Amino acid sequence: MDKYSFLNAAHSAYFADLYDQYLQNPDSVEPSWRAFFQGFDFGSERYGLEDAVETEKVMGDEVSCEHVSISVTKEFQVLQLIDGYRNRGHLFTKTNPVRDRRTYQPTLAIENFGLSEADLDTTFSAGNTIGSGAKTLRNIIKHLENIYCHSIGVEYMYIRKPEEIKWFQEKLSINDNLPNFSADEKKHILKKLNEAVSFETFLHTKYVGQKRFSLEGGESLIPALDALIESASEYNVKEFVMGMAHRGRLSTLTNIFGKSAKDIFSEFDGKDYEQEVFDGDVKYHLGWTSDRETKNGNKINLNIAPNPSHLETVGAVVEGIARAKQDDKYADNPSQVLPIVVHGDAAIAGQGLVYEIVQMSQLDGYKTSGTIHIVVNNQIGFTTNYLDARSSTYCTDIAKVTLSPVLHVNADDVEAVVHAMLFALHFRMKFQRDVFIDLLGYRKYGHNEGDEPRFTQPKLYKAIAKHKNPRDLYAEKLIAEGIIDDAYVQKLEEEYKQKLEENLEDSRKEDTTEITPFMQNEWEDFTTAKEEEMMKPVDTTCSVADLEKVTKVISTLPKDKKFIRKIERLIQSRQTMFDEDKLDWAMGEHLAYGTLLLDGNDVRISGQDVERGTFSHRHAVVKVEDSEEEIILHNQLSDTQGKFFIYNSLLSEYGVVGFDYGYAMASPKTLTIWEAQFGDFSNGAQIMLDQYISAAEDKWKIQNGLVMLLPHGYEGQGAEHSSGRMERYLQLCAKDNMFVADCTTPANMFHILRRQVKASYRKPLVIFTPKSLLRNPKVVSTVDEFANGSFQEVIDDPEIKTADVKTLVFVTGKFYYDLQEEREKLERTDVALVRIEQLFPLPTNAIHAILDKYKHAEDIVWAQEEPRNMGAYSHMLMHLDAVKTFRVASRRPYGAPAAGSTVRSKKRHKEVIDFVFDKTKNNQH
């Protein structure tokens, strides 16, 4: 190594600190360093030794330049070795219990740093950088091996915040990154590890071949979670929100969350449920809520969210639940709610949703003060080897997106696992940031217990078959330490298995399974609702005084700030609309939000560009022109109002819909809205729609009031920007699982949003909202319709005399105004246009009443602007027999929702309109 190559290390914290120490007191540093610094100009371009005197008398020692140069060079070589361990030590750890680790080059051999065996017994001041003081190279290497290359590998050097790196290095130096538990603590760890092992063994014996997605190979997760909860209570953490897929879930429910094994056995026995209002789900998908008293007497609320087989969806939901709890109860200290997400190694590496969730973690609208991510790393995904499951070195490399630290730990070393978990907790609580734990273990059986893993991994599973479980390994260690004896372990196992036997016996005395609702405390004021209840009117009226108050506030900008002139006019026009009794769509929204806020409810809206609205109609957040300061007028209504949250989201649908769904799940008294830029942008969140929004109440006995606003309407903007794909949502509708609406008036929008909060139950609500109608002068409502009206599922034609009607047209959404315009142009007084505003539950009684009213009509039409294979037509056919006799006016069936050519789009649109008014122009077949 060239004597000047030490410059690569010149920015190390150690070098800078040492130089500062020299400047303050030259005699306080070693003679070799003092001689070096005398010829070193830290602030100039000169970094050589040329200006050092030929010889220097220092504290009675003759120090030659050559000696100084060699000594300094060696010191820097040791510094580079230390940096090598810090940056790459994790690649050379003992973290894999059943496989040989991959070989990485270059290694940490001292020769790669210009050092040799001759240097091993030389004392180096560089040892100060790791907190050990001046030590021999041999002792420095031993210290580094203990810190960075034992059962825990740490990745943190890519972090860009010096204070975080310094925290890591100090923590690692203090405890050598090695666990140090008392005898009693070790016994408790063994107890929890025994519960994990014995639980799985018991199930394997009693329910042979049944799927349980056992934790075997990763049982150390249980004592680690137990320690996490106990230690978090000392930080005054009040609530945990956890999400995990199948692997180890049953053990976690029983041994951490306190779910009775009796209930789990009932689920294994396949008994029916005690209630008919839901269909249930497999046992390893169900959620749970409980309260736990920790050793220090604190109470912690524990929540494990229900999840489907789409492994990573629950992560987004967990973050939303945590944020809702933080906003509602812990705004002053949000870290009191701690989200934990447990991943599989194949899932965290392969599922794009993880990236979306990680990208949310520091965003104002979605951050949750840091999540602890735990990967139960089986080194295999169903049958796929880890080498085929990712391109990255580690499955946890997604952590580097947010420069989050990662702790890789050997799942067989339970003390190391518990230690790593507590280390992660300390980091999260200190820096309010995400941290990842890669729990490297194995999977004892196949993907499920009925699978044969030797088909695809014969070599690996030969090794696993001979491998002792973590409890037995740990028991041997404690016996060797003299902490326990053989009888102690046997007693632990017998006592726990006896408890399980008693639970099994009790479960078999019962005929049905009772499913405890998730987060029952938050939902105690709400009832469940079947379709009959959903069709009952809800009082959504409000006083004119409240409407006036909201209007005045949201129409008045601060006079001491400068705004874009167009914004000033737009904000002021709100008061003008109110005074002229012509309220547009934006006012329908604003007054719904404002009146709910006055009633004490919170409102949360998120999605891409929702603050001003994709079509610039909302402007709920106004920017000061010269500073971009944000003004939210809705938060200035009163001192006792609810909180108005509105956030432009990252360019994510799947993750953000999952987050907002979780938010609505945890905060049922909040109006929670997700808005798409265009209707079919929700396609990116289809899994959330299929697995949660449409099915969760049936599967998991949980309600949710999330509102989805999907701009929809054919205005010649191409396939993706026309259709919200309403047919997909309508196909998901059944019994009483959700509301779907396609509103046409500001008043109806106002009332349906208020109904969502004023009802005594919660159902998801999908609203197909307009684009062109946002500024259509005909799309207005009166103040009285807001104050004293209600949501109208069907709107009869107010302009036509019943006796004159020959053609009765049923229509939904924006297409009504196109038909109304054509009717005026043709001067047709014999055509009635009836709007279906709520598509599910379909208001069949109201529709039949309309049919009776116009029973003398010669021609009954279902009209839609969508192609026949899309839109609401098939839904109407399924839910209303009379529709089979209707004449259908629609575009022909197409693969794409709309034409890309504006000319072609207008032509097709006109053909449908023409056919509504003249059935002889039948070009639909």
TrEMBL record:
Broad EC category: oxidoreductase
Gene3D superfamilies named in the record: 3.40.50.12470, 3.40.50.970, Multifunctional 2-oxoglutarate metabolism enzyme, C-terminal domain, TPP helical domain
Keyword Iron-sulfur: no
EC number: 1.2.4.2
Domain Transketolase-like pyrimidine-binding, first and last residues per copy: 583-776
Span of the signal peptide: none
UniProt keyword list: Oxidoreductase, Thiamine pyrophosphate
Keyword Signal part of the UniProt annotation: no
Cofactors (names): thiamine diphosphate
SUPFAM superfamilies hit by this protein: Thiamin diphosphate-binding fold (THDP-binding)
Highest taxon listed in the record's lineage: Bacteria
GO molecular function ontology, one term from the record: oxoglutarate dehydrogenase (succinyl-transferring) activity
Pfam families the UniProt entry points to: 2-oxogl_dehyd_N, E1_dh, OxoGdeHyase_C, Transket_pyr
Entry-linked PANTHER family: 2-OXOADIPATE DEHYDROGENASE COMPLEX COMPONENT E1, 2-OXOGLUTARATE DEHYDROGENASE
Role this protein plays: E1 component of the 2-oxoglutarate dehydrogenase (OGDH) complex which catalyzes the decarboxylation of 2-oxoglutarate, the first step in the conversion of 2-oxoglutarate to succinyl-CoA and CO(2).
Family to which the UniProt record says this protein belongs: Belongs to the alpha-ketoglutarate dehydrogenase family.
Protein name in the entry: oxoglutarate dehydrogenase (succinyl-transferring)
